[in-house]
Design goal:
single chain; 68 residues; mainly alpha; 81% helix
């Protein structure tokens, strides 16, 4: 009975460690997803601005450079 209890305790400890590792991975991925979402939003805004500038027919000298 003692050996069985020891095995169960070892298994529970291993599972707890695995859960902590998975939690850290999920938290890191959540941060990465947030950063990527911000970058996509900025890229979409830039693309929309470039499209609006192209449609406006403003002379190239009056258009903002893409890095602004």
């Amino acid at each position: 009975m003692s050996e069985r209890l020891t095995n169960l305790e070892e298994h529970a400890t291993h599972q707890a460690a695995t859960l902590e590792e998975l939690s850290a991975v999920v938290a890191a991925q959540a941060g990465q997803i947030e950063r990527l979402e911000r970058r996509v939003r900025l890229l979409l805004e830039r693309a929309a601005q470039m499209e609006a500038d192209a449609i406006s027919g403003a002379p190239l000298a009056d258009q903002k450079p893409p890095h602004w």
